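Internal ticket #5521
Category: modeling
Description: The requester needs a full-assembly model to guide mutagenesis choices. All entity lines are attached below as received. Residue total reported by intake: 412.
Assigned to: D.W.
Attached entities:
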Amino acid sequence: MERTDIPAAPALKPGRGRRPADDVRRAALAAAAELLLAEGMPSVTFAKVAARAGISKMTLYKWWSSPGGLAFEAYFRVFEQTLAFPDTGDIRRDLTGQLHAFVDLVNRHGAVLAGIIGAAQSDPDLAEALSAQYVRKRRRLAVDRLARAQEAGQIRGDADLETIVDQLWGACYHRLLMPALPLDTEFADRLIANLFTGIAPRTRSA
Amino acid sequence: MERTDIPAAPALKPGRGRRPADDVRRAALAAAAELLLAEGMPSVTFAKVAARAGISKMTLYKWWSSPGGLAFEAYFRVFEQTLAFPDTGDIRRDLTGQLHAFVDLVNRHGAVLAGIIGAAQSDPDLAEALSAQYVRKRRRLAVDRLARAQEAGQIRGDADLETIVDQLWGACYHRLLMPALPLDTEFADRLIANLFTGIAPRTRSA
């Protein structure tokens, strides 16, 4: 149980021969994600993940110092896969699709995310992991897509793109973390309508 | 220490006569707020608050079941007093002033607020208190001011006012709770600029 410094090419599992390390790692993350989304954070144990993925617990210890670290990585992997930023060439349509997917995912599995963000407020290590592995990555992907739209003339040249991230996804996190009103696809549509059209009356917007 | 069911008109403190209950309550909250903002949440004890406010600990036990409850109420009282929603008749100027005050307050004392919001994610009682005593109250005050601006023709009739709350203050909470970029008055100005003008190019906004 204390062996954390295992050589690079372990063959701990007898039987069907060595699987490439990337495959094993992917299988572990997939198994952890399935457990996490089906049964919640406490269900992610090294024993359960190892059994489900067909790998040894030793292999898990090699990569993750705790089941929490494995669950954390698995969770954000799911978010990344579900929340791609499409580029059909129409920014408003792409943002609508992406925000609908985001709202759906948060409604199904947002309690785990809210718990992680909540715990990060009093846990500097978790805050750093959340920032590096999730917050900053997601911001960068969003701003990249918004920048292409700005170059294509679909977003005003003087609009601040980082601020748009806070006014779309940040507004959703507000309803998740400080709940008062529904976080649904209608809300996502209103976020986009307010922000694209502007809330000033037309006669004043020139 | 166990007496929590004290009659309505206590005269527990000898000397300068009875102070009206409202005065005593206000003094307790003011003292708790001073301690909280100067020295942090753990400094708010019944003994310290009683000494600073010139009242008895018994009086505090009458109103608050724990120092945490007293600190919580005191904290949001400070926020309420600092974060009035002015009405000069110019919504954009009023929002700018209010958001600047909000950002300044959050930058000075936001760690306590972030801690409360964080803890609320795994504490249903705290979540309920936060929702009732802070989130819903603040939303209502903001929407009231925005509704007057809409009636005055300073906000489009089809703009969703509740959504504006998420896109201004909610966007600030996003930078507080999932930090990546500064939460400052320049950010507040960009929030307002994006939202009032709209981020769509002018030729498409008609």
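Resolution: model delivered.
Comment from assignee: Residues 79 and 105 of chain A are 8 Å apart (CA to CA).
Ticket closed.
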